[in-house]
Amino acid sequence: MRQHRFDKDIPFTEGEYLRRLALTRAAMDRAGIEVLLVTDPSNIAWLTGYDGWSFYVHQAALVFHDRDPVWWGRNQDTNGALRTVWMNDDRVIGYEDSYVQNPDKHPMEDLVLRLVGMGFPAPRLGVEMENYYFSARAYLALGEAAPEATLIDATGLVNWERGIKSDEEVVFMRRAARISEKIVDGLLERVEPGVPKNEIVAQIQHDAYTGADGHWGDYAAIVPLLPSGSDAAAPHLTWDGRPFRKGEATFFEISGCYRRYHAPLCRTIFLGEPPEIFRAAEAALIEGLEAGLEAARAGNRACDIAHALAAPLERAGIERGARCGYPIGLSYPPDWGERTVSLRTEDETVLQPGMTFHFMPGLWMSDWGLEITESILITEDGPAECFCDRPRKMFVKP
Amino acid sequence: MRQHRFDKDIPFTEGEYLRRLALTRAAMDRAGIEVLLVTDPSNIAWLTGYDGWSFYVHQAALVFHDRDPVWWGRNQDTNGALRTVWMNDDRVIGYEDSYVQNPDKHPMEDLVLRLVGMGFPAPRLGVEMENYYFSARAYLALGEAAPEATLIDATGLVNWERGIKSDEEVVFMRRAARISEKIVDGLLERVEPGVPKNEIVAQIQHDAYTGADGHWGDYAAIVPLLPSGSDAAAPHLTWDGRPFRKGEATFFEISGCYRRYHAPLCRTIFLGEPPEIFRAAEAALIEGLEAGLEAARAGNRACDIAHALAAPLERAGIERGARCGYPIGLSYPPDWGERTVSLRTEDETVLQPGMTFHFMPGLWMSDWGLEITESILITEDGPAECFCDRPRKMFVKP
Predict the structure, then answer these.
(1) Across the interface, which of A131, A233, A241 has its CB nearest the CB of B216?
(2) Could you tell me which CATH class the domain A14-161 is placed in?
(3) Nearest to B210 among A52, A129, A202 (CB)
(4) Is the pLDDT assigned to residue A1 strictly greater than 50?
(5) For a tag on chain A, would you pick the N or C end, based on fewer CB atoms within 10 A?
(6) Which positions in chain B touch A325 (Cβ < 8 Å)?
(7) A153 and A39 in contact (C-beta within 8 Å)?
């Protein structure tokens, strides 16, 4: 491998990128993949450093066994790639703008010509079949343009390699966690009856982007979610201009972000005196969280966390029926999860040191909701470490 | 059609939703589609009112000829759908959480069971083949689960019906435009040498969400883009913690958003004395914009705008090589365009009153960039109306 462009502002060391490449190539080997077409922007960034909001058009990283990766995308975005990827400039290639959102032609036709030019007329080509950024049409267009290629499902192949974080990555997640804490502190200070929700979101995002501890803030892969009262039964409502009201709970699902790395932290604020149902749910949920953190040890399995959480909730008569967490790290919209492990009773993935999860046992009942969550790091020994350090409880402002 | 739930906070009138449904059904008829599976969140919202950040899992609106649409998605998101769609509650159906991100099963299997239950074991089923939210895997899973169905490509079917905005929609876009103007005013006031970019982004988002003219602000489908100096050669870089510098131009690509409706507005700020190359480009670009606005008349074609823009740019020796705009309106990440018309020389779409575009002739050269853009409305007669009213020029702060 030649000398690379580490004079640019690349987030990680060359060694870190080579580690990622080696892991990916080994996984490609196991899957019998000659060339890997990486379309998930999180995977592209993890492998190449590429960072830009260009994923609304087709783009990819191509990973080979015997040469550096290629960044491939729209012509106008090559300038962004040249500025952000660690590979040499000749590994950045663009397609003509007329391919963009044009029903008469498809960027995958250009990609196939490039592959042929690189000596791969009939590759065993890995493709991320279940991904926002590899459409059904892209799949068919690729198959039509490269009838000699063998398309192999590589869904999650890179995502699984991202599971165990390097020390360099954990540093970024800790910076994100400081931002998450700052956001929650701001919420506790500012949320009051009568304050419109959008004003609070404006403050959340201001806190998120100004950053913390001397580090700037990046955009999270999901916008703040903050439904109140009976709307908190719905996990994914965003906001409007209505005011917070006395007698209502609001959960705040937020994450600080540092250079695309996340550390989500959710807390609930009750304005007024919470009814007994909230107090009981809070107690059970905290007990479940603590049991889950105890179970979140290297050598245990993902399902062990889910079972540990479920026991106290069930004793309190609460059945969740949804997974209670997912891996986190580097991400682009629309999801800050890594889409590999799920913390649920069916998932027997063995936990390993360096894995990071959003332990997220949100309670979304028929007409109320409660979220108290932690972003966690699986350690060498002992229970999981929480990235954030804020009281694990429902906050009450009387 | 029965009485619907317009006691909820639905953005538009019942008449507006019925108009949209009628247009969609007519388009389905023309395409020979019996049931339309709408997976684009912008299309789902346009048809049903559904609003939530749940598009990172599979969900859809089903449109029929003879009965109300169905919202279908993850169980926990049915609570959000019940709160935001205009259809009756029995038109909201959810699938089990174990379908989420589970390689062993796919939500499309549930969808097919639902269709069978509704009397469609072998529908002529329209699917949005080229969409972020209909993955290659979803397409295959759907085909496997419903071998008797005929899948018909319905890419853009709903998007094309969204092209001509109703008066109700234009009201929302005008509110978004007020927010865009507020953001640009704030930039002119605050951008100075030495100010870190992330601090400016924090202010942009604060301005965006506090809203304008008494209306709250929603999140735009794209985050602010603001590359400086030679980085402005790259259209889609986001931000970091570096300060603005004297002698550099920065373009700001932003949009206010009101209830998912956008009115993007881009302006460039030069700190210091711009070199002649910027002045010449600015003059040519403004001339091109004005020519394009003149050409943006009902009865003319999309390509007429592109040609009108290109002439003065070419006289100044600038070749863009990219489309110069796209339709705008309601949108979810990752794109605020509608992905139908492209303002480019090959596109002969006839312009009609009520169409709305982001006329976006960004100049991204090898080591500098300049953006001055307008969101426009095609009127009954005369040139296009600009949604925003801010000086059409490069702003210079000496």
Answers:
(1) A241
(2) alpha beta
(3) A202
(4) no
(5) C
(6) none
(7) no
DSSP A183-239: HHHHHHHH--TT-BHHHHHHHHHHHHHH-BTTB--PPPSS--B--BGGGGGSTT---
Find the CB nearest B132 among A135, A199, A215.
A135
C-alpha distance from B290 to closest chain A C-alpha (Å): 24
With a cut of 70, say whether residue B4 has pLDDT above it.
Answer: no
% of residues, chain A, pLDDT over 90: 96
- Judge: B53–A77 Cβ closer than 8 Å, yes or no: no
Give the mean model confidence (pLDDT) for residues B110-130: 98
Whether B59 has a pLDDT exceeding 80, the answer reads: yes
Q: Are strands B150-153 and B124-127 parallel, antiparallel or unpaired?
A: parallel
Q: Of A135, A222, A337, which has the smallest distance from its Cβ to B134's Cβ? A: A135
Give me the mean pLDDT over the A207-228 stretch.
Answer: 97
**pLDDT attached to residue A3:** 58
The alpha carbon of residue B384 is apart from the nearest alpha carbon of chain A, in Å, by 24
Q: What is the mean pLDDT of chain A?
A: 96
Sign of the dihedral defined by the CA atoms of residues A382, A388, A389, A395, in that order: negative
Contact A84 B132 (CB under 8 A): no
Supply angle C-alpha A28, A29, A33, rounded to 5. 55
Binary contact (A155, B140; C-beta < 8 A): no
CA distance B251 to B246: 14
* The predicted structure's pLDDT at residue B1: 45
Whether A212 has a pLDDT exceeding 50, the answer reads: yes
Which of A112, A164, A365 has its CA nearest to residue A251?
Answer: A365
Sequence ranges of the domains in chain A: 14-161, 167-397
Chosen from A201, A225, A228, A345 to mutate, greatest number of chain B CBs within 10 A: A201
CB atoms A342 and B101 under 8 Å: yes
* Contact flag A132-B137 (C-beta cutoff 8 Å): no
CA distance A340 to chain B (A): 7
Confidence of residue B366 (pLDDT cuts 50, 70, 90): confident
What are the residues whose beta carbons fall under 8 Å from the beta carbon of B371, sequence distance 6 or more? B251, B252, B253, B266, B267, B268, B360, B362, B363
Count contacts between A and B (CB, < 8 Å).
234
CA distance B240 to A216: 7
Give chain A positions within 8 Å (CB) of B323: 97, 100
Closest C-alpha to B46, from B73, B74, B75, B71 = B71
Regarding pTM above 0.90, the answer is yes
pLDDT, residue A280, reads 96
Fold of the domain built from segment(s) B167-397: Creatine Amidinohydrolase (3.90.230)
B235:A199 CB<8 A: no
pLDDT, mean of residues A299-325 = 95
Question: What does the pLDDT look like over B43-55, one tens digit per residue?
Answer: 999 999 999 999 9
